[in-house]
Predict the structure.
Amino acid sequence: EELLTCPYNKAHQILKSRFQTHLTKCKRSHPDKKFAVCPFNSTHLLEESQLNYHVTVCEDRAALDKYKYNIDTGSTSNPNILPPVKQEVLECDDDWDDVNVQSYDPTKYASEANILRNINGALPSERKAFRDAERRRLNQNFH
């Protein structure tokens, strides 16, 4: 893999895949060094005087221009860009503003479904009676 030289310390040779991470760490170690950042690739750090020239010859600018203007075909529209989707109004039978609808009762649902329930805050005799009733209810539903 290709090695790149760190602009903060010329002795640093970093793999291209690790370069962005290295630049972040090295920037913290060298707060006194100020570089201009290329608008096309944030790993291109340059001196202010070189930025204008670099922007005109940056290889990442060529990729952006090729994508934007589709240089291969000569057209200015990109075939990868899809046309906007027309929004359609969907008809719906639900009326969420209707206040006369019965609300959901989880206790009622659990008492009718095949769900093992537990009772909290009851006396031991009440818990035992509830467990027996639940056992009978569930056995009825399975037979």
About this structure: The CA atoms of residues 106 and 112 lie 10 Å apart. Strands lie at 3-5, 13-15, 36-37, 45-46. The chain has a mean pLDDT of 85. Helices lie at 19-29, 48-57, 59-69, 106-112, 124-142.
